[in-house]
Amino acid sequence: MDVLIYDTTLRDGAQGEGISFSLDDKIKIAQKLDYLGVSYIEGGWPGSNPKDLEFFKQVQLLGLKNARVAAFGSTRKPGITVKQDSNVKALLESGAGTITIVGKTWDFHVLRALETTLEENLNMIRETISYLKDKGLEVIFDAEHFFDGFKNNPDYALQVLQTAAVAGADWLILCDTNGGSMSWEIGTIVQEVRSQVQTPLGIHAHNDSGCAVSNSLVAVKHGCRQVQGTINGYGERCGNSDICSVIPNLELKMGLSCLPPGNLKYLSEVSHYVSEIANMPHYNNQPFVGHGAFAHKGGIHVSALLKDSLTYEHINPEEVGNHRRVLVSELSGLSNLLYKAKELNIDVNTYDAETRRLMKQIKELENQGFQFEGADASLELFLRKAFGQYEDFFQLKNLKIILEKSEGEEEFSAEAMIKMQIGDNTVHTAAEGEGPVNALDNSLRKALNEVYPEIAEMHLSDYKVRVLNGNDGTAAKVRVLIDSADQSDKWSTVGVSENIIEASWQAIVDSINFHLLKKHLGK
User: Fold this and answer.
1) What is this structure's pTM?
2) At residue 150, what are phi and psi to the nearest 5 degrees?
3) CA–CA gap between residue 489 and residue 110 (Å, rounded)
């Protein structure tokens, strides 16, 4: 590898607000990172909690193929020997073959945070690294606050690095711990360090100035050969360098290898997987791996894309495991509709009057409040109906919803009664639910279940309501967006009405019809 990727999602990433990994979460993520092919997985700080110590025991049983597992800890404390330090003991007990030691390089931190002397800090670094090297371990030295330290006292910051190098450190990692350095500063300082020490260098950047990825790339450009970061940029405060951006930039823009050949296509999959495990929303516009990273809405853009994708895409989306999306909305041109129809294998005449009429109708619906760019399934059903390639699997004959609340009861009870036409059969049924929409959903499923048992495979995963014209008060028009899923797919549908039940009905019916259509087409 030209550049080694050191992933610290399980340690530094876990310090991000709202993130808390269970032991099982950490094991799953470690397996996925190894599948991606990173060189190092930092599993945690075994001296800080029992969960991390247990992780190191269990990870040894996984048989990882690509990654070395690193245990993180600090230098010995001031005033004691290395053998007396409980943190160092825990590092040895972890069984990890790679140990990452963090030490102070900024004199301000040594004097104010550690409350010790500059000489003692050097002793702590030297003795801890030497002790671990004597145990036959690979040692990575994280030079904490290095860039701030260098800018304030370059002589001492370099002395720290040289002390670590002489003690036997295998890597010296230059850390922009506060995330405040600019890229031009990073380049100049890395170049200076490279001229002073022979030990391989790495970069650990935080994103407090929004420069973590660019700082990491500049550091590599000037001689660093290891990049530390996290999946999706998770981390304390504003996060760490996002390796989901670092990796493709290194491989596709700088011509450097940092993953096993062919593994870059797994990047989007891993990014989304980790966000699910972390229970964090995935950033739609995240470079390279976001759902919207290759989404095109403007008609002029899509017209050019139809001729050559390079007109508005800097890489082929499939290289990072993502895919191109063309959105149809009131901002779209005819090209968007043509692209979408081609994607769905719908035969459309480019200059047909019906096609142009359909584009006008979509814009009118968007003006009424429909939002097809966020409801891909509703858009597909709309297009197939318009071009005679689809008929609903069922038709509503009658629907009645009863809401009832008696004195002394805390909540309303809801019941939906429905009469459906399914082929030649008329089905009449009723069901209760937790509110009118749930009762409606339950009743509809009950009516369809005998003829279409496959609807049991799908479920509604999210339900969102947006008031479109709040000035009308309780008579305001609302937009309902429903996300649905089965074991292999996710899709979204939309409904719009002044009546929230009607809007919900539209979205629910589209969701079920789309699922049945997928089964019918063998998708």
Assistant:
1) 0.75
2) -65, -40
3) 53
Q: In the numeric block, which tokens belong to residue 76?
A: 């010995």
Same domain, 347 and 247: no
**Distance set, CA 486 to CA 276, 454, 512, 514 (Å):** 16, 10, 11, 12
Domain-embedded: residue 310: yes
Q: Which residue has the tokens 């200059």?
A: 351
d(CA 373, CA 465): 16
Average pLDDT of the residues of the chain: 88
Assess if residue 284 is contained within a domain: no
Residues 244, 112: one domain?
Answer: yes
Rg value, the chain, Cα:
29
Beta bridge pairs of residue 431 = 416
In the Cβ-directed half-sphere of 136, how many Cα atoms lie within 13 Å? 1
Judgement on whether residues 103 and 172 belong to the same structural domain of the protein? yes
Alpha carbon distance 486, 275 (integer Å):
19
Please indicate, yes or no, if residue 289 is contained in any of the structural domains.
no
Per-residue pLDDT tens digits for 41-72: 999 999 778 888 899 999 999 999 999 999 99
Same domain, 235 and 341: no
Check whether residue 105 and residue 69 sit in a common domain: yes
Q: What is the CATH number of the domain that holds 507?
A: 3.30.160.340
In this predicted structure, what is the pLDDT of residue 169?
Answer: 98
Please report where in the chains the tokens 């009743």 appear, as a residue. Answer: 443
Q: Do the beta carbons of residue 103 and residue 125 sit within 8 Å?
A: yes
The closest alpha carbon to 519, from 468, 467, 458, belongs to: 458
Structural domains in the chain (count): 4
Q: 493 lies in which domain range?
A: 369-393+457-523
Q: Do the domain assignments include residue 290?
A: no
Whether 279 shows a pLDDT value over 90: the answer reads no
Q: How far apart are CA 227 and CA 241, in angstroms?
A: 9
Residue 479, beta-bridge partner list: 466, 496
295 within 8 A of 343, measured Cβ to Cβ: no
